[in-house]
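Continuing the series of single-chain predictions for the mutant panel. This is the parent chain; the variants come on the following pages.
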Amino acid sequence: MDLIPALSELRRTYRENASKSDANRQVTEIGLLSNGADALQAMQDQFTRDQKQDVALEAKVFREEQVGVLP
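Parent structure:
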């Protein structure tokens, strides 16, 4: 068996699977960040209702930093 064609095939397979894996990771990451932002919004709302404005502001700032990461 010729080594060069085998390595070329292995490289091609790796690149195909790596790109699929990266795309799946990005979709999962976006979902997690979105869910986290929703949870932080709920916490911010609860802190506001509880008259804990300082903590609500911290939650807001952190949430906005996280949302800024979303594409």
